[in-house]
Amino acid sequence: MTAFVLVSGGYTAGWIWRDVAAALRGDGHQVYPATLTGLGDRRHLARPTTGLDTHVEDLVQLVDHVPEHDVVLVGHCYGIHPALGAASRRPERIVRLVYLDAGLPGDGDSCMDLVTDEVRGYLLDRAAAEGDGVRVPPPPLSEARVWGDLRDLDADAREWLAGHAAPMPLGVLTQPLRMAAPLDPELPTTGVFCTLGGGPGIATIASLVATGDPRFAPLARPTVGYFELATGHWPMLSAPREVAGVLLRAAADEGERLIVGEAAGEAAAG
């Protein structure tokens, strides 16, 4: 039995994990989907002071109240930012960190630092025009530069996503990530790429490692495994059973490993 804490991307909350959670629980595992301050049924708690530190504290409190000691912490898209902050504060509780179609923020990076100038300007303009300067109302689903690839979501999933999306507190996007301490380099980690539409995948990571740039060397540690899902950016809606399966395999320490010193892109099953 494994305990999973699931943290979703922007504008969404614990509700989006419904089908993934059902699949994992059906296999006998414990699942704790996070709803962060200002989102989901906690949208009424957003304040002008709500920032990334608030969301990190939300997750720390959730982890502290999970009865299981060992937790697999999953961050999707924006969710990896508070997940990293919480992992740095409760390293003894986190047995694996999963990046689900997420970037690689580091200490001092804000969400806004990792998007293009165009997207940053769009979000700030939207906050100023429609969010009183302190929140970003959910963009229309047609805004692929914000929502990512949605082409494999059916009409029901799109309606559910649009109907439940909540404004993002602007502060959670602009406040830099503050790590309490560097993460243990030996912390088991899994990257899951959603590749529909030609998005980056394992080959992309292999090519970065093959450059010899020391910044990318940690991506080839033996404790880091990778999976690909041929779906869009919201796999918990488009492919929930596949996501559950990948999370279970990650928890079992499966996944492709990059082999340092071998031909670029060569991998071994973990």
Your description of this structure?
The chain is α/β, with parallel strands linked by helices and 270 residues long. The chain is built from ten helices and ten strands. It has a six-stranded parallel β-sheet, sandwiched between helices. A two-stranded antiparallel sheet has the order 5-6. Strand 1, helix 1 and strand 2 form a beta-alpha-beta unit. Helix 1 crosses helix 10 and helix 2 crosses helix 3. The relative contact order is 0.16.
Order of helices and strands: EHEHEHEHEHHEHEHEHHEE
Major sheet: arrangement of strands: 2-1-3-4-7-8
Radius of gyration: 18 Å
The average pLDDT value, as a whole number, equals: 94
Percent range for β-strand residues:
15-25%
In short, what is this structure?
This protein has 270 residues and is α/β, with parallel strands linked by helices.
Topology at a glance:
Blueprint: E1 3-7, H1 18-26, E2 30-33, H2 52-65, E3 71-76, H3 80-89, E4 94-100, H4 117-130, E5 135-136, H5 144-147, H6 155-164, E6 168-169, H7 170-174, E7 189-194, H8 202-210, E8 224-229, H9 235-238, H10 240-251, E9 256-258, E10 267-269
Parallel strand pairs: 1-2, 1-3, 3-4, 4-7, 7-8
Antiparallel strand pairs: 5-6, 9-10
Structural key phrases:
270 residues; two-stranded antiparallel sheet; globular; alpha/beta; disordered C terminus; six-stranded parallel sheet
